[in-house]
Amino acid sequence: MELDKYDQALLNGEYGETKQKMMEILLALGKIYEAEKFIEVKSVQVSGASFKTIGDAGLSWLNTLSGKAVVPSFLNPIGMPREEWQNLGIPDDFAKKQLEVNAAYARLGIRLTCTCTPYYFNIIERGDHLAWSESSAVSYVNSVLGARTNREGGPSALAAALTGKTPYYGLHIVKNRVPQIEFHIDDPAATKSWTNAHYGALGIIAGAISGNRIPFFTELRPNRDMLKSLGAAMAASGAVALYHVNEITPETRFPFFKKHIEEDDREVVEIEVAEIDELFGSLEADVVALGCPHLSTDELEELAFLLENRRVVMPFYIFAAEELRAKHPDLCNKILNSGAKIVPDTCMVVSPLMDKAGVVMTNSGKAFTYLPGMCNATPLLGTLEECVRVGCGE
Ligand code: F3S
User: What contacts 193, CB < 8 A, 6 or more positions away?
Assistant: First the structure.
C-alpha cells in the first residue's frame, strides 16, 4: 500500500505504541481488501460499547489502549443509561463494569454520545468518508445521506478514531456502490399506507435475500424514518451496508448511477405484500419497546401525540439519544405522564432490560430480528399505533 509520511510515522511508533498497533490493524485490513492507500475520515462511530456485548475480554483490551481520537468520534449505545440506571433494576455488577467501559472510551477521546443515530446531531454530507461501525448507522449514512463508509468492526473503527485514517476500499469507492439486486413489490399501491414497521418487515425479508449485496428498490416512496427502519432491518437479517430507493436516496439521481441502473444485469426479486403482512403477529405482549434505531424528533413527536391522555398498563420502554431527550422536554413530559419510560444512552438489545422479558412488542424489524438471540425474548411486530394500544391495554 502507498503510505504517506503520517501513515509511516504512525507505523514507526512515533505517535505511541497504541497508535502503532492501530495502524497495523488498518494496514492488515487494507492488504486483505487490496486497498491502494489510506484516506482521511471525517468522523468515526464506535460500536462495542455495551458490557453485555464486549464482556471482560473487551474491557481488558480497551484498558490496554492509550492516546486520543484525532477526529470526532461517537460512541454507540452502552448497556444502561449513564444516569439513573439504579431506577431500572440494572444489576450492580453489570453497572460497575459498564462504568469502566465508559471511562475507557472517554479516556481515548471517544465522545459518550451513546446513540446509534449520531447523524441527527452532527452534519454528515454526501461524499464524506467516514469509519462507522453500528450497522443501522452505517446503512443510514451510506444510503440516505450519501456518505461513504464500510461496515467497520469495533476495533477497526477505534483504530480509525485514533489515527484519523481508514483503508480506501469497498464502499469508499463509487464504482462499488451500484445496485446488485433489485426488489419489486407485487402490489405497489398497498405500500402507500405502509408505516415504519412495514418498512422494517420489508427489511427483514429483503436483507435475508440480499446477504451483503446492495439492494435497489423501485416503487417505494418512504420518508426518512421509514428508510431508517428498512436499512436497520436489512443490516440485521442480512449484512446490507448500503441500499438505494429509486429517485428517493441521493445517489440514484446521478447520471453514473442511472446508467448502471439501466444497463447492469442483476437478480430481480418480487416480494409479496402478503409476506410483509404475515410478519405482524397477535396483539398480546408483556412489554412494549420502541426506539430501535433510536428515535428521531418526528417519531418522538408522534409518540407524544399518541400517548397524551393515555396510561400504559405494562412496562413500556422508549429508547432515544440523551441529546434528543434534552432537546424536547415538553414532548418527553407528555410521554412520561402516561407511565412510559424514556431510556437514554442504551437500547432494548444491548442492555439487560429485555433479557427474558417474555413477549416484547416492537415496531422495529431490527429488534424483531435480534431480540430472540440477544435477549432470549419473544418478539412481536406491530405498528406504532398498535404498540401504543397494546401497551395501554386497549
Ligand atoms: Fe440502535 Fe440498539 Fe437498535 S444500537 S439500531 S437501538 S439494536
Answer: none
For the stretch 256-292, pLDDT in tens is 899 999 999 999 999 999 999 999 988 899 999 999 9
User: What's residue 96's pLDDT?
Assistant: 97
> For residue 31, how far is its CA from the centre of ligand 1 (angstroms)?
31
Whole-number Cα distances in Å, 12 to 3, 7, 200, 242:
12, 9, 47, 35
Q: Residue 10 C-alpha to ligand 1 middle, in angstroms?
A: 33
Ordered DSSP codes for 325-358: HHH-HHHHHHHHTTT-EEEES--TTTSGGGTT-S
Instruction: List pLDDT tens digits, range 227-257.
Output: 999 999 999 999 999 999 999 999 999 998 9
Kindly report the protein residue whose alpha carbon is nearest to atom 4 of ligand 1. Answer: 116
The three cell numbers of residue 210 are: 440480499
347 lines ligand 1 (CB under 6 A): yes
Based on the structure, what is the number of domains in the chain? 3
Pick from 137, 170, 203: which residue ends a domain?
170
Quote the ligand 1 centre to 294 CA distance (angstroms): 7
Pick the last residue of a domain from 153, 170, 187: 170
Q: Are residues 315 and 223 in the same domain?
A: no
Instruction: Tell me: pLDDT of 163 over 90.
Output: yes
SS3 (DSSP) at 166: strand
